[in-house]
Amino acid sequence: MKQPDHIIPRDQHTVSRKDISDNALKVLYRLNKAGYDAFLVGGGVRDILLGLHPKDFDITTNATPEQIRSLFRNSRIIGRRFKLVHIMFGRDLIEVATFRAHCASNTQQAKDGMILRDNVYGTIEEDAERRDFTVNALYYSVKDFTVHNYCNGLTDLRKRQLRMIGDPETRYREDPVRMLRAVRLATKLDLTIEPNTLKPISELAPLLEQVPAARLFEEYRKMFLGGKGEATFKALQTHGLLGKLFPATNALLAEHAEFETFIHAALENTDKRIASDNTVNPAFLIAVFLWQPLLERAHQLETKGMNFNDAFFKSMGYMLCEQSRFISIPKRYSLVIRDIWALQVRLPQRHGKKVWSALNHPRFRAAYDFLMLRAESDPSLREIADWWTKFQDADKDSQRAMLPKNKRRKTSRRRKPQNNG
Ligand code: ATP
Ligand code: MG
């Protein structure tokens, strides 16, 4: 029997089971066995076709969340914007969604076109239509190993282009985060954004102001902690989106070349850490992005008569609060950011007990890395940075020898950080 054109048989595509995690396969097989349709979809299929190794696998099915839930003991229904099922295998999590329709009469839309709720189940064809980019609307079945290509994502993948499904402007208005996804995915996958998909972005960028700040924190992580942070930062600048995420940062970049150097050094460093499987804390880059705005704010308060220390500490809270209006920063990270900043004032004070307490501070390592990156754009910090490099690895005797002899001597009280990156 001849298959319809959009169904690609196993010998005409490169997706194979060996590229898919055992847990995702388990879920697909169990859904099929219970009589449901089930597909691997989205980034999983797309990345395999591009020869990459996807980290997460999204599954979609015609089973309802309740039906999925009853098949997997280790699962729970979660209902953020949409109702989904999370199936847990130890630390591995597989997300399963029911086919969703993009049905105007059932969606709740704000006046400006933004979709507030849509939880209407549909057919696989409808599910494909409501996805964002054609390359994300490819479905792989383990029943017959076919790829279902409803929106011609395969042709776009071959052309290495990212194309919005439907009318780009309407789709961005429905969900402005799609603008960030366009930039992030094009950068991550080295795809060109198709001209009509690209065109509305700079004009519609202000719509990002309506997106809940908590959702933007999740996007921030994906954009900056996915291994291509530096390229993504540049792309966000190019497309006029950076100012909608980090307005204070964006406003100072043009006038402070050394701040930009500092940021790029930090992004490059983060990308390298990720490439070599080192841990990265989401707080670190936010501390970097807000560093110059923090210094500027502190300086303003100083000119009004406040001493530097008070101005600096007061400005920390102000900057974090201002930034959280755009991207919310969970408390556990804002505490880390404060520590990194506060240690920038302490690290130059190399005497007595202060040195030992700084060295033993749980955030010493992050603060030291931060100082090293600052030193890349500010030669006046080189000496302090090198001193700490030497000090932390020295044995106890050498460390004591590095400290000033007269413990009572009060030198360089609370040296003020330089007014640049
Ligand atoms: P990656 O996992 O590499 O970040 P992804 O495309 O898989 O990329 P997910 O957030 O895992 O991103 O989303 C899975 C799929 O859900 C996408 O491929 C896309 O089909 C769909 N999707 C995600 N976000 C949206 C959105 N804002 N609008 C429409 N469809 C979306
Ligand atoms: Mg994914």
CATH architecture annotation name of the largest domain: Orthogonal Bundle
Our count of helices gives: 22
Small-molecule binders: adenosine-5'-triphosphate, magnesium ion
Gap from first CA to last CA: 66 Å
Q: Tell me the name of the CATH class of the largest domain.
A: Mainly Alpha
CATH superfamily heading of the largest domain: cca-adding enzyme, domain 2
Assign the structural class, choosing from mainly alpha, mainly beta, alpha/beta, alpha+beta, or little secondary structure: alpha+beta
Order of strands, main sheet, comes to 1-10-9-2-3-6-5-4
Q: What's the quaternary structure here?
A: single chain
How many discrete domains?
Answer: 2
In the CATH hierarchy, the third-tier topology of the largest domain is known as cca-adding enzyme, domain 2
Instruction: Kindly state the percentage of residues in helix.
Output: 40-55%
The poorly predicted ranges are 407-411
Q: What portion of residues belong to β-strands?
A: 5-15%
Categorize the overall geometry. Answer: elongated
Q: Write down the Rg.
A: 25 Å
Short description:
The chain has 421 residues and is of the alpha+beta class. Helices cover 51% and strands 10% of the residues. Adenosine-5'-triphosphate is lined by residues 42-43, 56, 58, 131-132, 136, 175, 177-178, 222.
